[in-house]
Each structure stands twice: as C-alpha cells, then as structure tokens.
Write a structure and sequence with these properties.
The protein has a two-stranded antiparallel ribbon with strand order 1-2. With 337 residues, the protein is mostly helical. It is built from 13 helices and 2 strands, in the order H-E-E-H-H-H-H-H-H-H-H-H-H-H-H.
Length: 337
C-alpha cells in the first residue's frame, strides 16, 4: 500500500488545484464569452461558462507526474499524460469554435495509439490469449476511443460526469488498497482522478456555475479508460466492467437504439436515459443522486467481484444498473389538460 501521507498529499493537491482553478476560470471564461448557450438539445436554461476541464485535467496531470516522480509507476505514464494533453488541446479548440468530427477522431486515435504503444512493454494483452496480439491491440484501441466518446456524451447535466469520475476513482482506490490486491501506483493515480473530480463538483453541482467542456470530458474519459483497461490487462476485468457500468449501459443502449432507427447517431440529441428523466420532470440533482446511489453499490460490487464473489457481484451490478435505467426512463408524467 502506498504511503498514506503521500496518497493524502497527492489527493489534496489535485482537489485544491481543481477547485481553486475552476473557481478562477468562472469569471475569465465569462468575460471571454466561452459559454454554453441554451438550445433545443440543452439541459440548462442560462448561458454558462465551459472550460473547467483546463483546471480539472491540469490537476490530474500534475498529480500523475508527481506519482511518476515518486517512483510508484513505470515510464509509460508520461506518454499517457501527453496523450491526454493532446486531447485537451484539440478539445479546447473545439470548445472555442468547433472542429470537424474527423479531426477529433484522428486526435483520439493518435492519443490512444500512443497509450497502447507505451503500455506494450509493461501490460499484458487485454483479452488474454483469446485474440492474436495485433487484433487485441485493435480491440483495445476501439474500446478506448468508444469510452472517450461515451464519457463526453454522458457529460450533459450538472454534476453527472464529475460524480461518475469520482466514483470510479474511489472504487479503484479501494480495489488497490483493501483486499487481495495491493497496487500503490494504481491507488495514487485513481485517488488523483477522484480528488480532482470532487474539487470540480464544488462548482458544477446543480445549479452549475461552470461546465467541464470538451476540454475536460474528452481527456478525462481518456485517462479513466486507461486505468480501466490497465486493470483489465492485469486480468481484473470484472471491476473494470462494473465501476463504469451505468455510463456504459446508458450510452451503448442509446447508441444501439438510434442505429436501429436509422438516425444520424453522431449528432447531438436528448435521448439518453438521464436526459429522458430530465424531460419528464426530474431535476439535475435528483437524477445525479440516483446515479450516485447506484454507483455506491457498484463500488461495493466491483470490490466484491475481485475478492471472491465474482458471479454474484456481476449479477448484482447488472440488476442495480437495470433498476437505475428503469427509474430514469420512468413513465412520462401527464400534463394537465
């Protein structure tokens, strides 16, 4: 287990940088008119600054490089940090004026490719011996890019993306410190993600004073996916599946539904389960409280799955997410005549 003082220092530093940095960005982005303006697909009603990801991702990268300096992780981490920085830069340009989908996807595949190449000397194949090495790398890249985009898709209401990032980070910290597994590097990296997300939530909780923007949600999804894929490559795929299961289910089911209907799935929409809950009258905080409650159970299921309770924990996680999705979809409330 990592030195508790070091873990506390990394967490406190990431939380402080994210919190104070986000607060400082609110007036700066407002004056620069870097705003999310309400439209027919929005979930907010007033122009709100976007770009807090500059502080959040910056806090995580500083903390991760500190973990490298402390010798808790191997030499691949600077490449991962570079990939996240590349995505943050591209996404910031997109936040300011918009970039073609092709440009964003190329940047994502470049960042993911760097991550996979950096991980080859240290990590095993993602799917064990089921696939040849080249196909395993392709599958890992596709999953990584999909997670980057689904995390961005799910960043649609106050507090949702920050809460999910915090829950996944906390779940991985518990996995890496309590129970059968001891992984000080993973614990420190995950603690930084959770702490930065919590620092951001101070200003993003409903009613949000600032949004992550793509500069935050895209690289944050990239970094979280790296942690989950790294755990999977170590043979611990159950917790990597369970912790983000709500985001995976909501985004994937919504995508498949849109594909089945022949819709242009790459365009913005309001068909996610959390968006449908908002349309039927639930508030931002009410929705996120339900997600947090489910995530608390998923953290427990993830820990149990890797500590001798694999099948029951997986089954419980599926049930929890199914109940959450049904509660969000609900039955539309009738409008008074």
């Amino acid at each position: 287990m990592p030195d508790l003082a070091l873990l506390a220092a990394i967490s406190a530093g990431a939380a402080l940088i994210a919190c104070l940095g986000t607060r400082a960005l609110i007036p700066l982005l407002s004056r620069a008119a870097v705003l999310d303006r309400p439209n027919e697909r929005s979930s907010h009603v007033a122009p709100t600054p976007r770009g807090a990801g500059i502080a959040v991702v910056g806090a995580i990268l500083v903390a991760w490089l500190a973990v490298v300096a402390a010798g808790l992780v191997g030499p691949r981490m600077p490449a991962i940090c570079f990939g996240a920085g590349l995505l943050a830069a591209i996404s910031w340009i997109d936040d300011l004026g918009g970039l073609a989908l092709s440009v964003r996807l190329v940047a994502q595949f470049v960042a993911v490719g760097l991550g996979i190449l950096a991980a080859v000397p240290e990590g095993g194949p993602l799917f064990g011996s089921w696939l040849p090495p080249w196909l395993d790398a392709v599958a890992a890249a596709l999953l990584w890019v999909w997670f980057v985009n689904l995390f961005n898709f799910m960043d649609g209401i106050d507090g949702l993306a920050g809460s999910e990032a915090a829950a996944i980070g906390i779940g991985l910290v518990l996995y890496a410190t309590v129970g059968m597994t001891r992984d000080p590097g993973l614990a420190a990296l995950s603690a930084a993600v959770a702490a930065a997300a919590l620092g951001f939530l101070v200003w993003n909780w409903a009613p949000a004073r600032i949004f992550l923007g793509d500069v935050g949600s895209v690289p944050l999804g990239y970094l979280i996916a790296f942690l989950l894929l790294d755990v999977t490559a170590d043979g611990r795929w159950k917790i990597a599946l369970i912790l983000p299961l709500y985001f995976l289910a909501d985004s994937t089911i919504t995508l498949l539904r849109r594909l089945f209907r022949g819709e242009r799935f790459w365009l913005p929409h309001r068909q996610h389960f959390y968006q449908r809950a908002l349309q039927r009258g639930l508030g931002h905080a009410e929705i996120v409280y339900r997600v947090i409650a489910a995530d608390v159970v998923l953290v427990g299921c993830g820990w149990a799955a890797e500590n001798g309770w694999g099948t029951p924990a997986l089954g419980a996680a599926v049930v929890v997410v199914a109940v959450l999705l049904l509660s969000l979809a609900g039955v539309p409330r009738r409008r008074p005549a």
